[in-house]
Amino acid sequence: MTSILEQLKDSVSQALVAAFGTELADTDPLIAPTNNPKFGDYQSNVALSLAKPLKQNPRAIAQSIIDNLQLEDMCDSPTIAGPGFINFTLKSNYIGRLLREIQPDERLGIPQVQPTEKVIVDFSSPNIAKEMHVGHLRSTIIGDAIARILEFRGYDVLRLNHVGDWGTQFGMLIAYLREAYPEALTTANALDIGDLVSLYKKAKVRFDEDEKFKQTARQEVVNLQAGAEDSLHAWKLLCDQSRQEFQVVYDLLNIKLEERGESFYNPFLADIVSELEQKGLLEESEGAQCVFLEGFTNKDGDPLPLIVQKTDGGFNYATTDLAALKYRVKEDGAARIIYVTDSGQANHFAGVFQVAKKAGILPESVEVVHVPFGLVLGKDGKRIKTRSGETVKLKDLLDEAIERAKNDLETRLKEEERQETPEFINHVAQVVGLSAVKYADLSQNRTSDYKFDFDKMLDLKGNTAPYLLYAYVRPQGISRKGNIDFSQLDTDTQIVLTEEAELVLAKHILQLEEVIKEVESTLLPNRICLYLFELSQKFNQMYEQCEILKADEPQRTSRLILADLTARTIKLGLSLLGINVLERM
RNA sequence: GGGCGAGUAGCUCAGUGGAUUAGAGCAUUUGGCUACGAACCAAAAGGUCAGGGGUUCAAAUCCCUUCUCGCUCACCA
After folding, report:
1. CA end-to-end span of chain A, whole Å?
2. What is the ipTM of this complex?
3. Which end of chain A is more exposed for a tag (fewer CB within 10 A), N or C?
């Protein structure tokens, strides 16, 4: 189905050519939804922008466009307003026809891209031997949502978990374990993740305080990167234990990821450095092998290097990211690579991308995008730190969300004197709790800092997941009460939309395609949240004003279809955010 | 000091260059259930869109500048 916006654009473009000649064939018709319903549904601002080049009065231009427009089956006759806006109001029977078109379609009329392209989404990426904390929540949830949206649009998406399973922290950990718990280096599951985390902290303290230990730790990294047998064995044990723990969280959140950690690229690191050398990009500075960047300076105004090999001979994350980039371009054949990490890494990625382009690793045809997100702040507005101080563990956070949702539900059941099984209560609590956490994060513009607040996150009122879930449950209630199978509704007779609330709702349902396409390019999932919230509001308003089951035909069937399409749109939209719906709650 | 980002209602945040009233939600005040489940709806109140310039027919939005606050600036990732 061609979206309303595209149809209008085409029509106005044709009218422009008809009225003013083919030189305007490429002029953007500047169609946008109106921001006030009293001006109709869509407006074109093109007449104003053409006033100067055409040296004509914008209202006269608008009139010429209208005279050449052919939109009879779509809109009432367009009107000129103010200095020269053209306003379009969609006909209700046209809207009814569009609803009919999407009604039998599982995808609700949203097309898939042709041909498909390979897209890599790199997200989550926790560090081995550390617990997943609230900071990983954003990357995991946002990355998953982006992957789902692109998958739905038909892209061949590879979801990569670039796990921090390599690097200095392992030198530190192994060196410390050798010192303190040698048995843990040889026996599986001698330590649980909780121990690992406290070990990490102790090792970090030793690392920071003891220069000799620091040297030993650095040597361990080099040994590991060189493939020393006993170091590798210890490393594998550490990774396995962490992996099990991560999986618990991924299962709970229903996140699917392919693990390809930093260690995967280890065999390619030396080649990357020599490749840079061959291209004449490499310089030695203070003992380290660097590529100096354009447009980046340090405190003293000197050019900033991207270090690809450290003084001790070890490689670092810049080297790994270059190797990963090359692999993803050459072996995976990615056309678009999306990195979902916090905005603090913006400089790093800008540097890596610049060097990769210079070195010919990254061709023009491949789009790389850093999708940054803001910090996780405490309720006090200060940063929640990862290494010092107490951080909120992700698992604990999710459990508490579910627990709170359960308490809330039980209170409600008591008030309403409803009886439900424990299975029902647990299931609803789990869906509501997890949805609330995901939605609270996704509904904000990801680029702003995220103020982490249990009470707000778990509030069941307002622009929250429970509000949307409830809007989904209401049509299901109608279906049960009226003994109606939505999938068996009449698909032939005309849909009639008489009440204002019905029209408003119907038009909103038809906006889904535009919203999804927008998110596909901006990678801002909060647009979908806003859309679904507004949809839910509009449905609730219609529900309040229009009787459905008791209405006479043809209103009754039309309204049932509206209710069904609302529910299916919410279900689809939420599924793109990784959120499940409930039939009852 | 450089780079990047942010400053919109008491609070949390949307906001796609347009039309005498800049939008939500929360909180506050006030109405609406013998029910298609009120986890809802309706109404009120709340703003010199940080300040100052500029471009434009039109600026919260683009440009410049000042102030404030974050993040970041070589061997952690």
Report:
1. 34
2. 0.94
3. N
Kindly report, residue by residue over A341-393, the tens digit of the pLDDT.
988 898 899 999 999 999 999 999 999 999 988 877 766 666 654 333 567 78
Which residues, other chains included, contact A189 with Cβ-Cβ below 8 Å and sequence gap of 6+?
A241
- Closest CA to the C1' of B3: that residue is A296
A86-133 tens-digit pLDDT: 889 899 999 999 999 999 999 999 999 989 999 999 999 998 888 888
CA distance A244 to A128: 11
pTM of this prediction? Answer: 0.93
Task: Let me know if A251 is exposed, middle or buried by CB neighbors in 10 A (0-12, 13-18, 19+).
Answer: exposed
User: Strand A288-297 vs strand A283-285: parallel, antiparallel, or unpaired?
Assistant: antiparallel
The percent of residues above 70 in pLDDT, for chain A, comes to 96
Distance from C-alpha of A516 to C-alpha of A525, rounded to nearest angstrom: 9
DSSP 3-state of A295: strand
Are A532 and A468 a contacting pair, CB within 8 Å? Answer: yes
- Give nearest nucleotide to A522 (CA–C1'): B16
Cβ atoms A531, A515 nearer than 8 A: yes
Question: Residue A302: which nucleotide is closest by CA–C1'?
Answer: B2
Query: Tokens representing A562?
Result: 């509206």
Residue-range domains of chain A with CATH: 4-90 (3.30.1360.70), 168-258 (no CATH), 394-576 (1.10.730.10)
Q: CA-based angle A154:A160:A164, to the nearest 5?
A: 165
The 3 state secondary structure assigned to A80-100 is: EECCCEEEECECHHHHHHHHH
Distance from residue A401's CA to nucleotide B3's C1', rounded to whole Å: 39
Asked whether the beta carbons of A51 and A63 are under 8 A apart, the reply is no
Does residue A137 sit in helix, strand or coil? helix
Helices first, then strands: H and E counts in chain A: 20, 14
Question: Taking CA A26 as the corner, what is the angle to CA A23 and CA A30, rounded to the nearest 5 degrees?
Answer: 120
